[in-house]
Design goal:
The structure holds 2 protein chains of 2 kinds. Chain A is of the alpha/beta class. Chain A has one domain: Class I glutamine amidotransferase (GATase) domain (Rossmann fold, 3-Layer(aba) Sandwich). Chain A has helices at 13-22, 33-38, 50-59, 63-67, 78-81, 179-190; strands at residues 2-6, 26-30, 41-44, 73-76, 86-87, 92-93, 101-104, 115-123, 133-139, 141-142, 149-155, 157-165, 168-171. In chain A, the strands form 2 sheets. A 9-stranded mixed sheet of chain A has the order 2-1-3-4-13-12-11-8-9. Chain A starts with a strand and ends with a helix. The chains are: A alpha/beta, B alpha/beta.
């Protein structure tokens, strides 16, 4: 059972890899379609901007590959944002797997942007309440509450911190940097099939 | 809402954690990996690793330490010390750092802030500001890792903080050189002044000596985090002790 971490050109893949390593799972960091398709789990990390990550995925011909995956896929931070239809960051058309758009936090509303630090995440489903905890966020863009939002946090407004549709799970926070809470959340993902 | 952050800082020289007073007379206080692991387990919200010899001798931070630390912690991790280019930053981030903090190279080449922010996102780009207040004016100092190279740039902190925001920085660390290692409280006056013109997350640094110092910096200013070194290295207070005394004062903390 292998976890494919998609190499979308961004940095910081090592932290995600290490977090998976700590859960005793084998992983491969890859941009090869075949390796991604064959993996039992796929992680779409993202550091940088939606525009950079989408350009990179297009250049590597991975957009259709990702859109057709049937195994559990986890998008982290920008990796979650590009699961949606559109991001205001760089006016970017995204993967369109989940209905909704990504917008920028309102700086005029006395809000410090980027949001940087530990924020409380609240799941709406009773069964997932055990994952309510503080997680680490570092983002300037966010999704408001959408049809497939499963957990929310507050920064100025209430925003989507976890989204889930079919086999696609996305989290705005960085589970790989969220101490024990993040580790439990990754275990939740790896229980899926 | 987002919690306030407690951030231990590892100042490293020649492979050992050291601590000075007012940026001078550095003494060895412990081993890098052991302290990193200890702070992460104790509930630190973030860790800063600062190679203080790097900027003064024109080298980049020792890379082996970045990966060794990132292997043993699962909290955000910021690396500082002589990062002068996109390539320097990329290699540090690839080794497991989440943010890079730049000070002297930003003062020498402000465009670097913009380039880093475009390449990695503003959340990766922290600007360290070493500030000395002289005659009520706050000046930026460069090459502060060594007392023989540290010097005033003549740049005013109020102007610089506005400029780094415009250039796309994602966070600022305000380090008061008048307070560093003195353990008699954060520079509340300076922090208040600078936060009035700053819309970025701001971290207070320099002067923490007891738990009351953390309480006052969060009660009296709107900083987002408090960085400290000596108080934790000495073993006098653990991070969890500081955090629980802040919770008692109704300050929002992750515990």
């Amino acid at each position: 059972m292998t976890v494919a971490i998609i190499d979308s050109g961004g940095s910081n893949l090592r932290s995600v890899a290490k977090a998976i390593d700590r859960l005793n799972k084998s992983y491969v960091i890859t941009d090869i379609a075949d390796e991604i398709i064959k993996a039992s789990f796929v992680i779409l990390p993202g550091v940088g901007s939606a525009e950079i990550v989408m350009n990179e995925l297009r250049k590597k011909n991975l957009v259709d590959v990702i859109n057709n995956l049937k195994q559990p896929v986890l998008g982290i931070c920008i990796g979650m944002q590009i699961l949606f239809e559109y991001s205001a960051e760089g006016n970017t058309k995204c993967l369109g797997l989940i209905e909704g758009d990504i917008q920028k936090f309102d700086e005029s509303a006395d809000l410090k942007v980027p949001q940087m630090g530990w924020n409380k995440v609240t799941f709406s489903d009773q069964k997932l309440k055990k994952f309510n905890n503080y997680y680490y966020f570092a983002n300037s863009y966010y999704s408001s509450i959408q049809k497939h939002t499963t957990a929310t946090s507050e920064y100025g407004d209430i925003f989507t911190s976890v989204v889930e549709k079919n086999n696609f799970l996305g989290c705005q926070f960085h589970p790989e940097k969220s101490s024990e809470a993040g580790e439990y959340f990754l275990q939740y993902f790896f229980q899926k099939s | 809402m987002i919690t306030k952050r407690i951030i231990p800082c590892l100042d490293v020289r020649d492979g050992k954690v050291v601590k000075g007073v007012r940026f001078k007379n550095h003494k060895i206080v412990g081993s890098i990996v052991d302290l990193a692991k200890k702070y992460s387990t104790e509930g630190a919200d973030e860790l800063v690793f600062y190679d203080i010899s790097a900027s003064t001798v024109g080298a980049t931070v020792k890379k082996e330490w970045v990966s060794k630390i990132s292997d043993v912690i699962n909290i955000p991790f910021c690396v500082a010390g002589g990062i002068k280019s996109i390539d320097d930053a990329k290699s540090i981030l690839n080794l497991g750092a989440d943010k890079i903090s730049i000070n002297t190279p930003a003062l020498e080449n402000p465009k670097l802030i913009n380039q880093l922010s475009k390449e990695f996102g503003s959340q990766c780009v922290v600007i360290g500001m070493d500030i000395k207040t002289v005659d009520n004016k706050d000046y930026l100092f460069a090459k502060t890792g060594n007392e023989t190279t540290a010097h005033s740039t003549g740049i005013n902190a109020m102007e610089w903080i506005k400029e780094v925001q415009d250039l796309g920085a994602g966070e600022v660390v305000i380090n008061s050189m008048n307070k560093d290692g003195m353990r008699n409280g954060y520079d509340i006056k300076l922090l208040k002044k600078l936060s009035s013109v700053c819309n970025l997350p701001m971290i207070a640094s320099g002067g923490a000596g007891c738990k009351e110092d953390f309480i006052s910096v969060f009660k009296e200013t709107n900083v987002d985090g408090a960085l400290a070194a000596s108080i934790f290295h000495s073993g006098e207070y653990s991070i969890s002790q500081i955090k629980s005394s802040l919770v008692d004062k109704k300050i929002n903390m992750r515990i």
